[in-house]
Amino acid sequence: MPFIVKILGSNSALPTSKRFSSIQVLNIRERFFMVECGEGTQIQMRKYKISFAKINHIFISHLHGDHYYGLFGLISSFNLIGRKHDLHIYSHHDLQKKIDCIFDEKEMDYKVIFHNLNFSEPETIFENKFLTIKSFPLKHRIKTCGFLFIEKQKQLNIIKGKIQTYKISIKDIIRIKNGEDYKTQSGKIINNKDLTMPPYKNRSYAYCSDTGYYEKIIPIIKNVDILYHEATFDSDKQEIANKTGHSTSIDAATIAKKANVETLLMGHFSARYKTTEKHVLQAKKIFENTYAVNDGDEFQIQKQIVD
Q1: Is 254 helix (H, G, I), strand (E, B) or coil?
Q2: Are 171 and 158 in contact (CB under 8 A)?
Q3: Claim to verify: residue 73 and residue 166 sit in the same structural domain
Q4: Which domain holds residue 150?
């Protein structure tokens, strides 16, 4: 089952002809989650073939316009195309006030369900049988949250050939996946390790934008497969980054290294940059497995057997 991060917008406050403001869509086991909803979200969704019908959860990190100005048009379009199922939005409570000022629920064919975020400490904001999503505070000029997406730990993988060999029932398959040995009809005990393989590693993704350099997030995002960390400026603009509550390429790479992540994605670039080559060169000196994202990029986390 897929775990894919799709970048629909990779610039900061000012979009350009090549980069839209912050928008991402995660496909986690064929459930779709939108992170940020900057201006032009609908255009990018159509361009990159993201189904409107599959977006049921939208996470907005903070209330600077480049992270949510696309939301109002998207809510309206959902209604125009006949949406019936609920839309869940996770953000600061002031965003709910803005939505209520624009939309009359009597004229809506579906419900917008709002979830207020806690900007003081980490919290679990979504959970189902295979996924947990957490929010956590970042360091910015206004209250801002990052988001952590973690698959739940898998069960043991049963060897398919053993099912046929021992004619194992569905009830016993569940027990074996939970670590139990198997008793055959003749009374013979088959050790669990002879019937199973280790489970797949639970995959994870952390989203950190907008934020200054903030080491308090390291224990929260430690060992994730992919870290998206803003790098609005290259390291030559460290003073501006500090003043505006943003990060440089060096800041992002340092956090990635200290958190022992697998891959670093940098984004939220200032419109002053025509290319991001300098960002990447600076970051790779600290953390080699670094990429500067572009609109349309897609990153997939592959399944791996637990060591």
Answers
A1: helix
A2: no
A3: no
A4: 3-154+199-300
69-121 pLDDT, tens per residue? 999 999 999 999 999 999 999 999 999 999 999 999 999 999 999 999 999 99
What is the number of other CB atoms lying within 10 angstroms of the CB of residue 48?
A: 16
The dihedral formed by the CA atoms of 249, 251, 252 and 254, expressed in degrees to the nearest 10: 120
Q: Please tell me the predicted confidence (pLDDT) of residue 307.
A: 64
Check which CATH number belongs to the domain holding 224 and give it: 3.60.15.10
Total domains, the chain: 2
Strand 123-127 versus strand 131-137 pairing type: antiparallel
Predicted pLDDT at 196? 77
Q: Helix, strand, or coil here: 117?
A: coil
Residue type, 124: T
Measured between alpha carbons, how far is 103 from 88 in angstroms, rounded to an integer? 15
Query: 66 an active-site residue?
Result: yes
Mean pLDDT of the chain: 95
Spatial contact of 294 and 19, defined as CB atoms under 8 Å apart: yes
Question: What is the pTM for the complete model shown?
Answer: 0.90
Q: What is residue 43's DSSP assignment?
A: H
Q: For residues 181 and 189, what is the distance between their CA atoms, to the nearest angstrom?
A: 7
Q: Which residues contact 46 (CB under 8 A, 6 or more apart)?
A: none
- Average pLDDT for 13-27: 97
**What's the rounded mean pLDDT across residues 14-43?**
97
Q: Taking a C-beta distance cutoff of 8 angstroms, is the pair 252, 222 a contact?
A: no
In a domain, 111, yes or no: yes
Residue at which a domain ends, from 175, 197, 219:
197
List the catalytic residue out of 66, 172, 225, 251. Answer: 66
> Does any domain span residue 307?
no
- Report which secondary-structure segment, H or E, holds 147: strand 145-151
Question: Is the link from the previous residue into 86 a cis peptide, with omega within 30 of 0?
Answer: no
CB-CB contact of 210 with 230 (8 Å): yes
